[in-house]
Amino acid sequence: MRGLIVYGDATLKLVEDIPMPEITPYTALVKTIACGICNGTDTKLTAGHLNGFATYPAVLGHEAVGQVIQVGSKVSKYRVGDFVLRSGLGETEQYHSLWGGFAEYGRVLDYEAMVADGIPANLGDISQQVIPEGIDPVDATMLITVKEVYSALKRLGVKKEDKVAISGCGPVGLAMVKAAKLLGASFVALSGHHDWRIAIAKKQGADLAVNTRHENFAQAVKAAGQAPLDFYIDAVGRCDILSEALTLIKEDGVIGIYGIGIEENKGIKWNGGPYNFRIHSVQWPIPDREAAVHEEVMRFTQQGKIDLKDFVTHVLPIEEYEEGFRLVNNREGLKVVLKF
């Protein structure tokens, strides 16, 4: 079958020799509808420098949505016809798996059935979940980012009446604005570099959205009378952002780190902040915490409180993967989706 292979040297290739996934009593076979390009993880994996991942060549992709076409004899979580999140592939002789969402077919596992029957199960499979009817399966690729972000903010402890700043205007940062507002934050500010994305942040409910090419973010937050903050979340992964965060958070406030890949050769200005503060990294989703917010996020989406079309800017056929990654790398697209 067809799929997108990453080689770790900035090379991507669409191949046709990926083996079909094997179906066991606890798995369901899925026909991939579409898979989103992750602006962080996928671009780093393509370049070959995501910490902890060095198995190449591999089938890329973790933001897949597919439709179940066959179920194993022990499966009760999925039914034929269901649309599901996070379908993927296991390892094969030809290719490793970097989740394998960019493949023509994938599989989902019934984690709960395996646990109930005493079968060893991978906790990571618990977030393979069914999408309710009425949600477009192509747009639904963005749900994976929304769930990751929403669960991350819950892990950080964002709650009603908190004041939150977010640095980064990619899909993650913009989804954080919406998530923080849904959690009841009284003030949410976002910094970024692109006016068209700043406009999306305001649509998501940002009380303050600043293009830092034209205005100093910390000064703007202070001028708005909102400092000190309860939370400052770095959705990019830069030391200068953490230095700025220290100047804005309150005593015993929280700096959240979501962006992967903090520079190792640059320092942080620790003297700029209070004596007491906490740094909480939420750079990687915890599967059961992500799964736990599924119903809540689906309800918000069905109610129109989350509009996935605000984030999905481009949908391309899988054959145009090079253009898709160009759009992401050049910051011309927000959530770019490749469709089978």
Structural notes for this entry:
This protein has 340 residues and is of the alpha/beta class. It has two domains: 3-131 and 308-339, Quinone Oxidoreductase, Chain A, domain 1 (Alpha-Beta Complex); 145-281, NAD(P)-binding Rossmann-like Domain (Rossmann fold, 3-Layer(aba) Sandwich), CATH 3.40.50.720. Helix content is 26%, strand content 25%. The chain is built from ten helices and 17 strands. It has helices at 41-47, 111-116, 141-156, 171-182, 195-203, 217-223, 239-246, 287-292, 294-302, 321-329; strands at 3-6, 12-15, 27-36, 58-59, 64-71, 83-85, 96-97, 105-109, 130-131, 163-167, 187-192, 208-211, 229-234, 249-257, 277-281, 312-317, 335-339. The strands form three sheets. Strands 3, 5, 6, 8, 9, 16 and 17 form a seven-stranded mixed beta sheet that branches. A six-stranded parallel beta sheet has the order 12-11-10-13-14-15, with helices on both faces. A four-stranded mixed beta sheet has the order 2-1-4-7, with no helix packed on it. Helix 3 (141-156) crosses helix 4. It starts with a strand and ends with a strand. The model has no long low-confidence stretch (mean pLDDT 96).
